[in-house]
């Protein structure tokens, strides 16, 4: 791990000399992207009134100023001195901010002292071992019921900045989800075990629209007690679904039985009969809870001109739905992995 940290430090020393937005985002279009991305990302966060927030990998403070207006207190952390000083210079006038220069792998905070952790492009600079350790520390820092929001570049790089040396870990979405939901810690008295459950996982649409890049992914996780009744000792019910109930192979088998785009009885005929009763109009927004692989969503968008957001707890279901969405070329249909019992929307 010492070598990993040394490589990351050298990488960011090279890309933090002027503490500019372009350096921090490793992209020549940083300002244009930020203008569109900031409101999108902030709209994903839960209400932060009364919250103590920990911002990890804060950089020069793109999000800090906004978090400070939303929360009671924000502790903002980055391990590059030039970034921390720029953030302090721009946001130090706020009375509810603490600025810390530290490597997150060495950061120590009191247990249960934080309500919400915000991390943007940090975890991809940690090895798997470091990430697992960091997730366990986050669980300890958070109060029960607290939230972790993180956003990462998955699969490959996104920025256009030249890099002669690049130690970044470009994990898949599935790898992040597995590592995050597998982490767990015991309460100090040993009476309970806590872990993360996924509230939602979704793409950053700004990057899809501006760069044709579907690999910028956000997660919102909640710290919850682990249940001993989860089937077959999977950490979460979602892991059970994706590894047993709805494996990718199993989903495609269901589709052969029930019709293209469908994984349950009734298929296209029942969907048409039911949806035709809804009196849908062009431009309306439809939320499909338990969308499966999206057959009904594509039908509604094509037939009635509505915008559809499909939610499903199964990662495998949503992965297949998004593959089909690219084939269908329907930007009015979007999908996300989400727990419908926890997902919130504006009234």
Automatic annotation (TrEMBL):
InterPro entries: Methyltransf_25, SAM-dependent_MTases_sf
Top-level EC class as recorded in UniProt: transferase
Reaction catalysis annotation: phosphoethanolamine + S-adenosyl-L-methionine = N-methylethanolamine phosphate + S-adenosyl-L-homocysteine + H(+); N-methylethanolamine phosphate + S-adenosyl-L-methionine = N,N-dimethylethanolamine phosphate + S-adenosyl-L-homocysteine + H(+); N,N-dimethylethanolamine phosphate + S-adenosyl-L-methionine = phosphocholine + S-adenosyl-L-homocysteine + H(+)
One GO process term, biological-process aspect: methylation
E.C. designation(s): 2.1.1.103
Domain Methyltransferase positions: 53-146, 286-346
Coiled-coil spans in chain: none
Keywords of the record: Methyltransferase, Transferase
GO molecular function, one term: phosphoethanolamine N-methyltransferase activity
Associated pathway: Phospholipid metabolism; phosphatidylcholine biosynthesis; Lipid metabolism
Keyword Nucleotide-binding: no
Pfam families linked to this entry: Methyltransf_25
PANTHER family noted in UniProt: PHOSPHOETHANOLAMINE METHYLTRANSFERASE (PTHR44307), PHOSPHOETHANOLAMINE METHYLTRANSFERASE ISOFORM X1 (PTHR44307:SF2)
Protein name (database record): phosphoethanolamine N-methyltransferase
Organism for this UniProt entry: Nothobranchius kuhntae
Highest classification ranks of the organism: Eukaryota, Metazoa, Chordata, Craniata, Vertebrata
Gene: OLA.10295
